[in-house]
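Lab meeting, action items carried over

1. Structure of the two-component assembly. Owner: GW. Status: complete.
Input record:
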Amino acid sequence: MIAGHFGLAAVVKSRERSVPLWALMLATAFLDVVFVPLYLAGIERIIPVPGTHGGYGDGVIHADYTHSLVGAVALAAAFGLVAAIPWGRRAGAVLGAVVFSHWLLDLVVHRMDLAILPGGAGGLPRLGFGLWEIPVAAAAVELALVAAGAYLYWRSALRTTQEPGRTAGSGRAHVVAACLLLAGVVTLALDVTS
Amino acid sequence: MAFIVAVVLFVGVVGVLDARLVGWPRPGSRKEVEP
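Predicted assembly:
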């Protein structure tokens, strides 16, 4: 799941108007951002499901540090603490929660490959509800998140631009919301055709 | 590939457009939470 995470961040933006959207977008992808260098270093891996080429939803993901339950909590806390320095405790808490929301959404789609402790320590059961085994359903959930995020963002941005004393025209809200929706559709299309 | 494109689009394009165009309240302001 990629696009769905960004859709959820847009939903949060519609409720927490003062938290910068770019920071919410970075927060929602933060576990994967940290995953990239570990993947390139061979510490975390993606193994194609046998009989597939490893396309959309066809990977068993051994991201045992960034995407372990405890690892995700630690990364969320670190992100929230850093964000709280310039933007305050509330924004830090919101951004930390958005970082952790990544793990919750991944829990829905992943096959049972999410470790609880970093490195899969303790041999505890791995988690994942496996929606990726039904790719159409997983893609539909992602599209719904993107659509909901774009709509709620648009509604909130429109209201903001129409507040008394605001100089930004409502057309700006239309433009950004349209870009958000387009970015989501492009991302989802690239992901499902990978 | 899709992930890198997504980060560029959402953080670098949509995020920056949002910050420059919409005029949201700043953190800590009274209007920061949607009524």
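2. GW to write a short summary for the group page. Key points so far: The radius of gyration of chain A is 18 Å. Chain A touches chain B through 47 residues (CB under 8 Å).
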